[in-house]
Design goal:
There is one protein chain. This protein is α/β, with parallel strands linked by helices and 620 residues long. It folds into 3 domains: 265 residues, ANL, N-terminal domain (Rossmann fold, 3-Layer(aba) Sandwich), CATH 3.40.50; 166 residues, Rossmann fold (3-Layer(aba) Sandwich), CATH 3.40.50.980; 139 residues, GMP Synthetase, Chain A, domain 3 (2-Layer Sandwich). It contains 22 helices and 28 strands. Helix 12 packs across helix 14 and helix 21 crosses helix 22. The longest helix has 18 residues.
Length: 620
């Protein structure tokens, strides 16, 4: 039971929960939501035009000065101005005469959003690519792989000088490069302002041509099991998904509790489905205001994230567990930050990876101290292929590790897989497949058309399915020890990080065909600096006695509670370098790619099992 469970929740205006469960003769179980799916628009441009008409002066997006982010204040764009400029961008694409894909290389900015929605209005599928492929890569292998797969006719870069090296690493040829600042060299290019022209009848006709089946985006997977796949995202998928989430809310009451306008401040990148669809487009559908956060839960970018959250009081906040872990530490030492953050928030959520109960407890202690109330911290669950949210916890929640129940508009199927239940999903939010990859598309769906998510789940209480489903490990990450014992890497990773209570940010679970389970451990630098009182490099932290003892004590406590071979951790090797996004070790959702990290850190994995002592090695 949660240590703050006796404190009441701040009101969360969800609709009454309804759950339909059907047990089949073959052992599979179908689960659906009893609430109806609210009417949804046919495409993603509809809400932008709607709010431009209904609330023209309301702020859609706000950002810091892109040239000098250190300057105070926010640059803002209203719904009316945004709709006008989106139409102008669309006209530019229509003038070019080819509704071909456009690759976007940019952080989250107002111009990025204008290009995205303008291209989609013109019928050009958007291919948002993580900037790391162009800015950090040494060989541009993934950038070129994506380029060859999708073959975009247009490329947008925020800053031509910043992305020059990435553009040089691609075979641009005679393709058109759009830019917001600083024209790139040695290619045909045009500024976004010059490209955009006043919209005419052709833009209105393009709007009328959009249907739920029109391709809006090719969203790239993280490539955890190979090269990235291009997931077809239709307008109908994303437009419906926004309403799926809103279908479990009592919206009139929500407006009374939080105010008419929903407000978020968020850093999750639009090159990933979580940031692009669950954040940007959902806030657009709400008619909300989104502050673009250029910070992140890393030592270099955390100060910017905190600066922004000190200025913006959100009504909702959803992010990845790594960000919640960093915020927990900052809330504990910065009362002004906590006061601003908890002022009017009614719901907090996480997604992208599982989160430990310890992080929840630390956040709630601060929330109760500031407000006298708990704030529900729930989970959303889904995939790039489900655009993205297939389920969430739509009731006041204090238990981490849940994925909730399916949202109105899709159906879950639980299929027996050994002693577990494999999760599959079918619904209006599910992709028709992968672009130019029929083999992967066929393999992704079962004989009834359910998409195979690759995760195992379980009922929290089989006798009371309305209490929801819990994540039970990723089937692709499970492996056997040498003695044949199955290890659930996803589940064990969460348990280990939670047991250390803040010192570890993440871990890689090793042991395939080995005698014991061991970990590669990644420290939470911010927490460890506070723990030791020293601001030293990560390479020094891994040998700091205080840090080592914190990790050792936490994992030995875990082992005492989990003595079986599948859960007991024999050793941990603390890493002197953080996981690298460019190499695929860490996904944009902020969690460790277990297989990729082990492959790239093979020497450290061998050291775990062969050496008696090494820097950062803790034998339990």
């Amino acid at each position: 039971m949660s240590e703050t469970s006796h404190i009441p929740f701040r009101e969360v205006p969800y609709l009454p929960q309804k759950t339909n469960v059907e047990h089949r003769d073959d052992g599979s179980i179908l689960i659906s939501n009893g609430q109806p799916l609210k009417d949804h628009p046919p495409h993603m441009l509809w809400p932008l035009r709607y709010w431009a008409e209904q609330a023209p002066d309301r702020t859609w997006l706000a950002q810091r000065d892109p040239v000098d982010p250190s300057r105070d204040g926010w640059q803002q764009i209203s719904y009316a101005e945004a709709w006008q400029r989106v139409q102008a961008v669309a006209q530019g694409f229509l003038n070019a005469g080819d509704a071909a894909p456009i690759m976007i290389l940019s952080r989250n900015t107002i111009d990025h959003a204008l290009v995205m929605y303008g291209a989609m209005l013109a019928g050009c599928p958007v291919v948002p690519v993580t900037p790391a492929y162009a800015l950090l890569s040494q060989d541009f292998a993934r950038l070129n792989y994506v380029d060859q797969l999708v073959e975009p006719k247009y490329i947008y870069v925020e800053d031509g000088t910043e992305y020059q090296r990435g553009l040089d690493g691609m075979n641009i040829g005679d393709r058109l490069v759009l830019y917001s600042r600083n024209a790139p060299k040695d290619c045909e290019s045009i500024s976004l302002d010059a490209f955009a022209t006043p919209g005419g009848n052709s833009v209105a006709e393009a709007y009328d041509r959009l249907t739920p089946e029109t391709v809006a985006k090719y969203m790239l997977t993280s490539g955890s099991t190979g090269e990235p796949k291009a997931v077809v995202n239709t307008h109908g998928m994303i437009a419906a998904n926004a309403k799926m989430i809103r279908s479990v809310w009592d919206e009139p009451r929500l407006a009374e509790v939080t105010g008419e306008v929903q407000v978020m401040c968020n850093f999750l990148p639009w090159s990933h489905t979580y940031g692009a669809n669950a954040i940007l487009h959902n806030m657009t559908d709400w008619g909300g205001t989104l502050y673009l956060d250029w910070g992140a839960p890393t030592p270099a970018r955390l100060p910017e994230m905190l600066r922004n959250l000190k200025e913006v009081s959100p009504t909702q906040h959803t992010t990845v567990p790594a960000a919640w872990a960093a915020l927990a530490t900052e809330f504990e030492k910065d009362e002004a930050l906590a006061q601003t953050f908890f002022k009017r928030i009614c719901q907090m959520a996480y997604g992208g990876a599982a989160m430990g109960q310890d992080i929840y407890e630390r956040i709630q202690r601060v929330a109760v101290g500031v407000t006298g109330e708990r704030i529900s911290l729930s989970a959303g669950y889904g995939a790039t292929e489900t655009s993205p949210t297939a389920s969430n916890v739509h009731w006041p929640n204090d238990t981490m590790g849940l994925i909730g129940l399916p949202l109105p508009g899709n159906v879950f199927k639980l299929v027996p897989a050994g002693d577990k239940q494999e999760l599959r999903v079918k619904g209006v939010n599910v992709t028709p497949g992968y672009y130019r990859n029929e083999e992967k598309t066929r393999a992704a769906f079962d004989e009834e058309g359910f998409y195979r998510l690759g995760d195992a789940v379980r009922f929290v209480d089989p006798d009371h399915p309305e209490k929801g489903l819990a994540f039970d490990g990723r089937t692709a990450e499970e492996f056997k020890l040498a003695n044949g014992t199955w290890v659930s890497a996803g589940k064990l990773r969460v348990q280990a990080v939670q047991a250390v209570d803040g010192a570890l940010a993440d871990a890689v679970v090793c042991g395939l065909n080995r005698d014991e389970v061991c970990l590669l451990g990644f420290l939470n630098e911010t927490y460890c600096a506070r723990l030791t009182g020293e601001d030293v490099p990560l390479s020094d932290l891994i040998e700091n006695p205080i840090v080592v003892e914190a990790v050792r004590t936490g994992l030995e406590k875990h082992n005492a509670q989990n003595p079986n071979a599948a859960s007991r951790i024999a050793r941990v090797l603390l890493q002197p370098t953080p996981p690298q996004a460019d190499s695929g070790e860490i996904t944009e959702k902020g969690y460790i790619n277990q297989n990729k990290a082990q492959a790239l850190r093979g020497a450290d994995v061998e050291r775990l099992y062969s050496e008696a002592s090494a820097p950062g090695l803790i034998v339990l």
